[in-house]
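Subject: design request, 253 residues
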């Protein structure tokens, strides 16, 4: 089940439940020390290079953000051989460069979630880790993602601050106004604890934010609908296969 030649793993968010380009797919459902991941880990090839895919909410989007077993998902990816994770996160845009259908690779985050299992140090008797998290996304791996987008000619905003909210409801206008004052550019429900756990596990981790809508009070829309979210994710997702091919080009066979 461990693939020594795995280039990286991709975690798909809302609206991204599979990678159609994946060839020679093997599926694994590993039971981790934290239980089962949200769904099968699909390991296959793109452009001859091996890559893993996991749908964060399950392939039928059955698991809401606050109920995701983030620990099992990341450990399952490690069990198939992943050392690097590219996390696709559907987000709302707060500041002007981050409008709907933009792809963004944030370099900071603020965690507003609560009540989630957010560390490997949860169980009594586990070693307490105080991992450095000043740069929550692995700078070198992030740099590779941004460079690959440039090579592929895929437009991407380099940098920005991801605010992770609890959900599953969307935010109030006042909550978004506060997040803007705090310095957030993007808002989503799944960026944490995933990024923090990845750091505890020693995984290189980068986020690809797919902007689906203007966050509450930021655009002209009277309300945010799932139809709008899914349509914009589909539009923005056309950049993902060329980005993945360019990113995989940087890895050996
Ligand atoms: N807020 C939080 N999460 C989201 C949003 C939003 O506006 N859009 C997509 N995911």
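Subject: RE: design request

Done. Sequence follows.
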């Amino acid at each position: 089940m461990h693939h020594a030649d795995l280039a990286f793993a991709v975690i798909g968010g809302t609206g991204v439940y599979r990678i159609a380009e994946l060839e020679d797919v093997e599926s694994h459902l590993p039971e981790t020390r934290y239980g089962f991941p949200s769904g099968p880990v699909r390991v296959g090839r793109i452009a001859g290079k091996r890559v893993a895919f996991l749908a964060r909410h399950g392939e039928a989007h059955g698991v809401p953000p606050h109920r995701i077993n983030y620990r099992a998902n990341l450990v399952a990816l490690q069990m198939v051989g992943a050392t690097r994770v590219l996390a696709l996160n559907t987000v709302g845009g707060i500041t002007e460069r981050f409008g709907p259908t933009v792809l963004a690779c944030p370099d900071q985050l603020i965690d507003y979630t609560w009540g989630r299992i957010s560390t490997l140090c949860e169980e009594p008797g586990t070693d307490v880790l105080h991992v450095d998290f000043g740069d929550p996304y692995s700078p070198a791996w992030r740099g590779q993602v941004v460079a690959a987008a440039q090579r592929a000619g895929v437009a991407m905003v380099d940098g920005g601050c991801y605010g992770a909210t609890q959900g599953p409801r969307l935010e109030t206008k006042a909550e978004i106004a506060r997040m803007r004052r705090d310095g957030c550019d993007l808002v989503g429900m799944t960026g944490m604890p995933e990024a923090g756990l990845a750091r505890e596990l020693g995984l290189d981790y980068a986020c690809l934010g797919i902007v689906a809508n203007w966050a509450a009070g930021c655009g002209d829309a009277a309300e945010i609908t799932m139809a709008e979210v899914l349509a914009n994710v589909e539009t923005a997702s056309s950049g993902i296969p060329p980005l993945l091919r360019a990113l995989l080009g940087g890895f050996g066979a």
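The CA atoms of residues 101 and 181 lie 23 Å apart.
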